[in-house]
Amino acid sequence: RHYGTSKIISNPRRLSLPPGPTPELILGNTRQLPLHSPWEKFSEWRKKFGDILYLTTIGGPIVVLNSYESMYGLLQCKSSSANRPVFQMGGKMIGFDRMINIRQSDEKWKTGRKIIQSALSNEAIRSFYPSLEGATRTCLLHILEHPDDFKAHLELLTGKIIVLFTYGLKVESSQDELIAINNEAVGPSLAYFAPGAVLVDTFPILRHVPSWFPGAGFKRHAKILRQKVDTMFDVPFNRVKTNMAAGIAIPSFTLENLQDGIYDESDQLASAGSMYIAAVDTTVAALASFVLAMALYPDVQRKAQAEIDEVVKHGALPTFEDRDRLPYIGLLIKELQRWKPVLNLGVLHFATTDDDYDGYFIPKGTTVLPNVWAVTQDESNYKDPNRFWPERFENPETAELDPYKYAFGFGRRMCPGMNFADATIYITVASILAAFNISKPRDENGNEVELDVPYTQGLIACPENFKCIIRPRSEAAASLVRTTADEQGW
Ligand code: HEM
User: Fold this and answer.
1) Nearest residue to 163 (alpha-carbon basis) of 418, 407, 490, 464
2) ipTM of the assembly?
3) Pocket of ligand 1, candidates 114, 193, 415, 418: which has the most ligand atoms within 8 Å of its Cβ, to mutate?
């Protein structure tokens, strides 16, 4: 029934492929795959076919995992699907295949991942706390001065944090060259890593079409993007080298690597260049969803603020030292990862060897998609899944499935930046709640306007720009934001 059968090499037990919708001749299920919210379609198919779906497309077979159990069983406990598919356009043509994030699991990936993992140890993150606090103080000031642009302020915050951590370079504004070169390279490229990319990104032969050929606009597009990607990798790295030679480099991930000299410079450059794209848009998406959740759920907001008021010293803003005494903020952050997962379909995995799972055969060459969205919306995991309700994790005896078990991926490809992201989200969420009230926008008659905010469709699910009211909680809160930004911000 499935075209993928021709690819079966070793299936001694003659297990069947997982079930799925009936494919068409030649195109398989390609035309049945919606480019809009495919996670919803996969969830619909789940009702008919079960947790594990098999689809054939012009790009090769796809297995969709619709439950946490299947993700844990196949992606966490086994290593057969720990690879990535080849991204022709985003990887080979544009040049992002130097990044470890989408790189196939080869030696370069292994080295790059090792470099990143050791740089993101808990100890390293702890020593970065003062910088995280300082950057957040300035972000609060920006929100106070221009509350309607809160999303741009959050983008600048996460961008400057990651540039400082990676290169020890300070970014003052969103016009800074270091932010601009990253955005110019990353923004237009993200689409090529989205789940739909497996469909459009399937003709390696197209790489050899000359760029003057009619209709080969994508080749010209790739050429322009490739230059931007090179700039993104090279400019900050070379600046650190210059600063190092001049003896003025600030401690950073890159400086440490250059000084240690353990790894090839190409590996150092690639791992540093993997950080921005992995860290910024993901963290911003979580923080923008936080602002939306607070506007929609004022009771949660008040409860979190009450906890902060009780724990944090009067006349001060929250710090990392307060974290253990702010359990409700911890629950709120957890619920944020569940309520609106940043990567609805995770990042694509790829099977490098034949394997079986739950009685089904998973052939080598299959792209594996964890449908994270389905897990977050499954009523057998979460009561009233649409509701933003941090209390669902409160009681250890009855707590619902912890989203940190799936929102950051699985196995050898699991996100090495989870604790860094978590620290950034904690300090931003706690600081914003300490200083501001967030509420729904109002119309000209002063009536609240309902918020129904669409989310971006690509790889990352971020709320589209939306209006809400962000006001300092009191005059004292406003002046606290101003003075701490003067004293501790950067
Ligand atoms: C809310 C924020 C974030 C979320 C939800 C997130 C989620 C993920 C997910 C789902 C993956 C793919 C895992 C898999 O394939 O199974 C991933 C990979 C990765 N993430 Fe994150 N991430 C976040 C922030 C960060 C940050 C802040 C950094 C760096 C400081 C980072 C660095 C990376 C890297 C380097 C990879 C590639 C790992 C590999 O392919 O071996 N991420 N992330």
Assistant:
1) 490
2) 0.99
3) 415
